[in-house]
Amino acid sequence: MSVRKLKIKKDDQVMVVSGKERGKTGKIVRVIPDKAAVIVDKLNMVKRHQKPSQKYKHGGIIEKEAPISISNVQVLCEKCKGPVRLGRKTLGEGKMVRYCKKCGEVIDR
Ligand SMILES: [Zn+2]
């Protein structure tokens, strides 16, 4: 599965539609194409033991986002106020954009 085909991008607002975080929304901070997964800001937090490092000077237990399968998230449409399926279309200038299949609203600007 390619990310291109999945129509999902960094900074997209998404809703988790399955799994323990179901119904929660957040912004995609990272897409992991190899795993067909995304990291959503402050969602699917897991506790990890962290050795002291540059970033975490004292180490200990930190909370970190775990990847969520792309199949478990859907992009939110501002107009529909909910998760929707996206389509792709080409605008006049030849620019490819994603749009909401429900209301037709263009997601990319
Ligand atoms: Zn819509």
Task: Describe the overall structure.
- The chain is 4% helix and 43% strand.
- The model has no long low-confidence stretch (mean pLDDT 90).
- A six-stranded antiparallel beta sheet has the order 6-3-2-1-7-8, with no helix packed on it. The chain has a two-stranded antiparallel ribbon with strand order 4-5.
- With 109 residues, it is mainly beta.
- Strand 1 and strand 2 form a beta hairpin.
- It is elongated, with a radius of gyration of 16 Å.
- The structure holds zinc ion.
- The site of zinc ion has 8 residues, from loops.
- Zinc ion is lined by residues 77, 79-80, 84, 100, 102-103, 105.
Question: Which key features would you list for this structure?
Answer:
109 residues; mainly beta; binds zinc ion
Short note summarizing the structure:
The chain is mainly β and 109 residues long. The model has no long low-confidence stretch (mean pLDDT 90). The chain contains 1 helix and 10 strands; from the N terminus they run αββββββββββ.
